[in-house]
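Trying the structure run again after the queue cleared.
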Amino acid sequence: MIRFPDLRPVCRLLAITVLSGIGCARAETAAVDSSVVRVRVVEARRTSQSLEVVLTGDIQAQAQVNVAFRTNGKVAERRVEVGDHVEADQVLAVLEPLTQQANLDNAKAALNSAEALLTQAKMAFERQKQLLAGGFTTRSTYDNAEQELRTTQAAVDSAKAALGTAQEQFSYTELRAGVAGIVTSRSFEVGQVVQSGQTILVLAQDGPRDAVFNVYESLTTQPPAEGTIAVALQADPAVTATGSVREISPTVDAASGTVRVKISLRSTPPAMGLGAVVVGRGRFAPHDAVELPWSALYRYDGRPSVWIYDPARRAVSVRAVEIDRFGPDIIVLKGGVEPGERVVVAGIQFLRPGQVVAAAEIGQRP
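Done. Tokens:
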């Protein structure tokens, strides 16, 4: 009987050697794979963007009037409060008319005196006229009487003008609105001394109303597609109105970075009173732009940028972009990325320019 040598130890050694080689190969492969950053990319495409802007503002009068006394004095009476509706000829406040009353009395007395002198001059002229016709007076005396008549007549005219001025100054002690509207501001009290031209009341004039919004400057570069803005009362969305842009402020508010825009309402519902909070909606004309996920945005050298993946080189490069607008989970680009290019949207925190990466399209396994 032939006995074969026991080969089991040799087989075990070979198996261990083979498994060790396989393990080393897998370790080397894992080491190579771990050195390549895996990213996800998306192909840039142009899509139609139709932006709808929703803003909150308030209702204001198109015309506001600053009301002031036309003469100096001490306030004796105030007849209105903030929120009152006043008519054009309504008296809003009264000054103590001591000085104006004295000037008026003096003007009346001066007129009475001038008229008395005029009556006397007329009688003297008539006597000289009759005497001259009968040859009982001289021509020079007649001329003097005529001259005196003309002088006193001019004095009467001057006194009447002075009386009219005094009466006008007296009327200035009563403050009248001049226009119908609602009192929105008051800055005086009874007993206060006010100056001529000093604004003490502000009136919101009756008539058309504006919906006023503070918008970001970028929104003013292009008008709404339909040219109209839909406005709804915030407290009751069923109360609506429409309007168009009437005025855009030429300056940007330094504190908020916004621009004031006034929308002229075509008709104002009664519920939209002054100061009512309203919501405006405007849809801008559609335009094509590149839209990317938020995760693609990267800051490089202080500028907004994205990482571009080159399939031929399997490498990435950083590129500055221009932002059109931000959405809830997207960014819309004005420029910087062309359709068909691959943009990295995941893994950007591990990248450097020129780095070779392992990329997978969105929806595929890396």
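Residues 1-5, 13-33 have pLDDT under 50 and may be disordered. Worth checking whether this holds up in the mutant runs.
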